[in-house]
Amino acid sequence: MRYYGTVIRPPSEANSYILQITYGCSHNKCTFCPTYLDKPFKIRPINEVLEDIEMAKNQMPQTRRVFLADGNAMVLNNKKLMPILNALNSAFPELQRIGIYANASDIFHKTNQELKELCAKKLLIIYIGLESGSNKVLKRVNKGATAQEIIEAVKKAQDAGIKVSVIALLGLGGTDLWKEHAIATGKAISAMSPRFFSILTLMVVPGTVLHNQLEQEEFILPEPMQMLRELRVILKNTNVQSGCIFRTNHASNYLPLAGRLPNDKDRLLEIIDEALAKGKSCLRPEYLRGL
Fold it and tell me: Domain coordinates of the chain in residue numbers?
């Protein structure tokens, strides 16, 4: 297997075979994201991808999960995706699931039938960054999509049988838009009702536009306890009807949480309230946080 540049994957794909089918992100303009600053977007040649699958077949024949990288590999049309999915299904008899990152536009550019075709080939989970339910925040960080567009994209994928894991970012609204960010994020999650909902905490990385804005005091990052209050407001305003697996167990977070919504909502709010009452001593220390 061969990899180029920075390669990331969701925490839930820790034991998956990571296969790069694109390099970088086709958008790559979010002010907070440092992940693909080291490489321009490029579609990887199909012959290289198939060669890697063959290598993986020989080295890891019992592979059950595969994750397709990089940033929004679902930007590829079905003409390019289907041969890869077919090769993976052929190479790994025990294959259970294929996962992929996507932007809202990647989903919109596929018909319902095309999404169902991908699902039938075991592409069963999409990871998508909502980041914020506030259009003010999304515009400020140059997300490239509105909250409503992301909501509709998630619903479209789920209607085709593909589970969606949605990510939001604590702190992205800064100190000025934190409440709007929190309330709107909860409402957006409620509207899309994803299978999985994860919250990460913003870490401002040197080299990003947001880091420059932070240094110029054009953006002010909330303090840890403010992040916790923001988390509470998001959760308070999240009202999903069906079972949604909720996590804040990413290394960036100050307070790891896990539960199912709506059943565990009150319990999770109680945990946050206890942490707010105890103060910073109960939060994950800075030296243990990471991207």
Answer: 11-278
3-state secondary structure of 271: helix
Question: Could you tell me the two tokens for 107?
Answer: 């989903």
- Whole-prediction pTM value? 0.95
CB burial readout 203-228, b (16+ within 10 A) else e: bbeeebbbbebbeeeebebbebeebb
Which two structure tokens, joined as six digits, stand for 243? 């079972």
Chain center to CA of 3: 21
Strand order across the beta sheet in which 163-170 lies: 17-20, 65-69, 97-101, 123-131, 163-170, 196-201, 244-247, 258-261
The fold adopted by the segment(s) 11-278 is: TIM Barrel (3.20.20)
pLDDT in tens, the chain (291 residues): 799 988 989 989 999 999 999 999 999 999 999 999 889 999 999 999 999 999 999 999 999 999 999 999 999 999 999 999 999 999 999 999 999 999 999 999 999 999 999 999 999 999 999 999 999 999 999 999 999 999 999 999 999 999 999 999 999 999 999 999 999 999 999 999 999 999 999 999 999 999 999 999 999 999 999 999 999 999 999 999 888 999 998 889 999 999 999 999 999 999 999 999 999 888 888 878 887
Ranges of beta strands (E only) in the chain are 17-20, 22-23, 42-43, 65-69, 97-101, 123-131, 163-170, 196-201, 244-247, 258-261
